[in-house]
């Protein structure tokens, strides 16, 4: 009868990597069999037993630079010897590592909840696992919370369905000039800028990549037509907005520290004149309504200089907003 082959010995580097992976694996599962661990790491069960015995005599010396009981890992030896079960009963130095506060963990979990709704984040099981780990690893239990749904959530859900099914998405779109057209696109990517969300997709009406703001999309539906373009098939521009011959040119003064915030709107080769801590340059916008929103997001750091109709549009819009906060004279 042939003797079973001995497991191939690990080199020092391989053994260190293996141990560094094994410890967090054991901690996360609390109780696990030797067989299960061996299958997970694709090694012989005896190698797992040897590693556990090594872990049990490993640790970090205390303030006296000597090893006391609490400075070493420990396991439930009876379970290990009699039942081939691994249970860590003492963990070294891990509880002393920095942890997120309950508020920090809650903020991260809220962000992950929102990200999990986006179509490109297909592996939502991994996101859910990360949220659970954040909750367990915080210094205190995070406050229960939920991210408020927005009007764009239903559209995001259909985009996700379209991406998962590999089918085209159809919708009515309100363009920058006020025209409404039925569009049919292959969804490629969802991106955000400030408080707005945008869909970038291959537009079959224009036979090119186009950007659509989600709050201008209405009556969306997933079609039965398969997509013909994927994100890996086309080159997406680095900037979110593409210029066109119909764009309006606006001159602005912007603080040096805020120029990067307008990078998507400043055309390549635009002049930039330094004026006492500010830069005078030009933007390209599709309409003045979008310019009003843009300037409102940069109050105090950007000013419209020219043309006069652009200045007037922004000033009137700001005045109308301020008037709503004035007290009723009656």
Describe this entry's structure for a reader.
The chain has 330 residues and is of the alpha+beta class. It has helices at residues 12-29, 34-41, 45-55, 77-83, 102-115, 124-137, 153-165, 288-296, 308-323, and strands at 31-33, 74-75, 85-90, 167-174, 180-193, 196-203, 208-213, 217-226, 248-255, 273-275, 278-285, 302-306. The protein folds into four domains: 18-96, Arc Repressor Mutant, subunit A (Orthogonal Bundle); 102-137, no CATH class; 153-226, Roll (SH3 type barrels); 248-323, 2-Layer Sandwich (Alpha-Beta Plaits), CATH 3.30.70. 33% of the residues lie in helices and 25% in strands. Strands 7-6-5-4-8 form a five-stranded antiparallel sheet, with helices on one face. It has a four-stranded antiparallel sheet with strand order 10-11-9-12. A three-stranded antiparallel sheet has the order 1-3-2. Helix 5 runs antiparallel to helix 6 (124-137). Keywords: Proteasome.
What average pLDDT do the residues reach? 76
Strand order of the largest sheet: 7-6-5-4-8
The biggest sheet, with number of strands, parallel, antiparallel or mixed sense and barrel status, is: 5 strands, antiparallel
Shape label: elongated
Computed Rg: 29 Å
H and E string: HEHHEHEHHHEEEEEEEEHEH
Low-confidence stretches: none
Q: Number of folding domains? A: 4
Distance N terminus to C terminus? 104 Å
Helix content: 25-40%
Organism: Conyzicola nivalis
Domain PafC HTH: 14-136
Protein name: Proteasome accessory factor C
Pfam family, one: HTH_PafC
